[in-house]
Structure formats: C-alpha cells, structure tokens
C-alpha cells in the first residue's frame, strides 16, 4: 500500500511541474514584443542579391576558363577547340601500298597527321612501326578493313600516339 501512495505522489508531482512550465511559456508568448523588432532579426535575400551573385559566378567561370591551362598526357591527343591555328597534315591512301607510303611520310612530319583511307584493298604485307613521339598519327579508316594477313599490323613505340578511327582489322596478330 505504501508503494502505491508513493507512486501516486510522484505522478501528482510530475503533473504539477508540467503545469508550472506550461504557464511560464504562455506568459512569454503574451509579452508585449513589437512585431517589427522580430522581423528586423530575420535576414532576407532579395532577388537582386541573387541575380548579382549569379552574375559574379558567371564572371568567375569566364575568368577561370580564359586562364585554364591544358595538360597533355603522355601518349594521348588533345584537341584545343579555342585554338584555330592548329597545324595538321592530311594524307590519303587507296591501297596497302599507298597506305604504307603515307604512313612512312607521316613519320617525317612535324605536325599531327591524319591518314584518310579511301575505298580500296588493304592487305598487310609487313608490320608498320610508329616511332615518332613528337606528333600524333590518326588513321581514319572511312569504314575500310585491313586484312592483317596473319601478321602484326602495327607496332607502337613507347611515348608515341597512334589513333585508329572507323577502321576494322581482321586476321591480324597482336
């Protein structure tokens, strides 16, 4: 019986503490605080601030883009669209023999070179070695096929770049 009296006393005590706390909050809300003072404490962002911020971001992007330095990784080709003065040699071939001639001529070039394969027959009769590390060679196959003739078609030395585009190589060795 004593335990139930103690439990009842604790429950009444908790209810009284809750009631006192609730009345304290109620009197704080009824105080004479000026609504204008409350509004002054709130920070607002106007639309003009937002637009000015966007403008600054765009200006920073333009500045960063104009100061951007482009790095060329070893063994890759990087095209700089902003530079209209890129020197590039172009050669064409319509058979394996003319392709070998164009390939060997590309080795002597000092600017990046593209060899365009025209419609023709391309049957390998020896491995072509690309060893010019100063330029990149791109072979645009124009959907032509090179028959590897059971031999290795290309050997690419270290630090050299050779890009094959729109070309199929069959019967070749690695």
Summed up:
This protein is an alpha/beta fold. 38% of the residues lie in helices and 28% in strands.
Helix content: 25-40%
The helix tally amounts to 4
Low-confidence stretches: 35-77
Strand order of the largest sheet: 1-2-4-6
Distance between the termini: 95 Å
- The overall pLDDT, averaged over residues, is 74
Report the β-strand fraction as a percent range.
Answer: 25-35%
The helix/strand series, from N terminus to C terminus, equals HHHEHEEEEE
Rg over CA atoms = 39 Å
> What structural category characterises the helix and strand content?
alpha/beta
The count of DSSP E runs of length 2 or more, i.e. the number of strands, is 6
Largest sheet: 4 strands, parallel
Dominant shape: rod-shaped
